[in-house]
Specification:
This protein is an alpha+beta fold. The chain is built from 16 helices and 20 strands. The chain folds into 3 domains: 100 residues, Rossmann fold (3-Layer(aba) Sandwich), CATH 3.40.50.20; 70 residues, Dna Ligase, domain 1 (2-Layer Sandwich), CATH 3.30.1490.20; 242 residues, 2-Layer Sandwich (D-amino Acid Aminotransferase, Chain A, domain 1), CATH 3.30.470.20. β10 and β11 form a beta hairpin. It binds ligand MV4.
């Protein structure tokens, strides 16, 4: 493999190109008019303008990107996450044009893009799943009986949904029909597919996902778990690896289940298998994401691997360079997604220019960044500016480093989720490891964050005052 086109922008485009460069592979960037000056464009060996700012006029134009790839003799396309990364037709079009798609085969993307097809595919592998229906609901009266058997509350999910899209809680039987009607028409509108199914509602779960990797020679490994329960409206904000609740036994059971999910769809490349973990530590398969995920760095750190390098090797037909027995967890890693959003104002997008933009640095700190001082945050794309990642021997060390790194990260001109990161790192529930997917809803408010910051500021002031007084005393000692 000599040349890779990265069909993405921002931090992930840079992150992929850095590994390509390390491997001696040339890189091609594509960009929209608003991204002309972006770091990913400057970093690449070649860069091609593909269209206007809106994604559907640039980063989503699969055919145009393939044309660019062909004209520049590109061997492979890395799709990053979002955009074309889980588009089975795009993966197929790449192959038809003799370009390697760095990701799974379209077949696996299609199966996992349908929750019902996914459940069906894993059927013979004994994967634990939440009690519910495994076929699209056609008869509402029948479904109501099943729901009553499962017990309320239940959840209606759209088969074509995922990541929290197209879900509806039904608290009691009397609401079942009306909620079902709504769920179906929503699914038709949002996905063009009205297939829905029901599941028992797991009330206070943790969201734990397993990183898997497979090559084209039938080898499968998992790279342990990521804890992703700190999320807001299905948008993850803080992730970590390993999870503080998994025992070695549970970890290897979930890892094995994840590998089986990958086997069930002949998976190739890097993928993530999502599970819910209930309060009794039962785990249930939810869905598989057939891309490299935003939060992959925490897995890289605790396993000492480069997942993009593995993706490229596997896409090139090479065998995975390690087996399951070679993998172990070392240390602890945390990731904070730094969004251009204002946590004091309901996380509304904060538009503006990065007047000051200085990254924290030092041992145990990694920043996967896509911006530079003076740049504007475009409104057309996801508002994530960077990922702040810290790591140490222990979870406490990673948390302390995160607080330090947040305070060393100098961003002026826009509001960001950095202060939210401090809030999380200082919260007792987070520090103790005793939290679930309701953390933000349960504990966070703008008021509480302000109070916490005032308290911290007071403590800092008192410490400074004490130092000052101590020094004064010393100065006054007569000699
Ligand atoms: C659930 C659930 C409770 N019970 N399924 C949300 C994202 C999608 N992957 C599945 N999701 C959920 N499915 C059952 N049967 C709760 C969630 C859920 C959730 C899951 C992971 C992370 C955050 C979440 C926030 C709200 C709901």
């Amino acid at each position: 493999m000599k040349k890779i086109l990265v069909a993405n922008r921002g931090e992930i485009a840079l992150r992929v190109m850095k590994t390509a460069k390390k491997m001696g592979i040339k890189t091609v960037a594509v960009y929209s008019t608003i991204d002309r000056q972006s770091p990913h464009v400057k970093f690449a060996d070649e860069a091609v303008l593909i269209g206007e700012a809106p994604s559907n006029k640039s980063y989503l134009l699969g055919n145009k990107i393939i044309e660019v790839a062909k004209s520049l003799n590109v061997d492979a396309i890395h799709p990053g996450y979002g955009f074309l990364s889980e588009n089975a037709d795009f993966a197929e079009a790449c192959e038809q044009n003799n370009i390697i798609f760095i990701g799974p085969k379209s077949h696996a993307i299609r199966i996992m893009g349908s929750k019902l097809a996914a459940k069906d595919a894993v059927k013979s592998y004994n994967i634990p799943m939440v009690p519910g229906t495994d076929e699209a609901i056609t008869d509402i009266a029948d479904a109501k009986k099943i729901a009553a058997n499962i017990g309320f509350p239940i959840l209606i999910k759209a088969s074509a949904g995922g990541g929290g899209k197209g879900m509806r809680i039904v608290e009691k039987e009397s609401e079942f029909e009306s909620q079902m009607d709504r769920a179906i028409s929503e699914a038709v509108n949002a996905f063009g597919d009205g297939s829905v199914f029901i599941e028992k509602y797991v009330a206070s779960p943790r969201h734990i996902e397993i990183q898997v990797m497979a090559d084209t020679h039938g080898n499968y490994i998992h790279l342990f778990e990521r804890e992703c329960s700190i999320q807001r409206r299905h948008q993850k904000v803080v992730e970590e690896a390993p999870s503080s609740v998994l025992t070695p036994e549970l970890r290897s059971k979930m890892g094995e289940a994840a590998v089986n999910v990958a086997k069930a769809c002949d998976y190739v490349g890097a993928g993530t298998v999502e599970f819910l973990l209930d309060e009794h530590h039962n785990f249930y398969f939810l869905e598989m994401n057939t891309r490299l995920q935003v939060e992959h760095p925490v897995s890289e750190i605790i396993t000492n691997t480069d997942l993009v390098e593995l993706q490229i090797k596997v896409a090139n037909g090479e065998k995975l360079p390690m087996q399951q027995k070679d993998l172990k967890i070392t240390g602890h890693a945390l990731e904070l997604r730094v969004y251009a959003e204002d946590p004091l104002n309901d996380f509304l997008p904060s538009v503006g220019t990065l007047e000051t933009y200085k990254l924290p640095e030092g041992k145990g700190i990694r920043v996967d960044n896509g911006f530079e001082e003076g740049m504007e945050i475009p409104i057309y794309y996801d508002p994530m500016i960077s990922k702040l990642i810290t790591y140490g021997n222990t979870r406490d060390e990673a948390i302390s480093l995160m607080k330090q790194a947040i305070s060393d990260y100098d961003i002026k001109g826009i509001e960001t989720t950095l202060p939210f990161g401090t809030f999380v790192c200082e919260h007792d529930a987070f520090r103790s490891g005793n939290f679930d997917t309701h953390f933000v809803k349960k504990y966070f408010s703008a008021e509480k964050m302000k109070l916490q910051h005032e308290k911290e500021a007071k403590i800092a002031a008192l410490i400074a005052l004490k130092h000052f007084n101590d020094e004064e005393k010393q100065l006054r000692v007569p000699n």
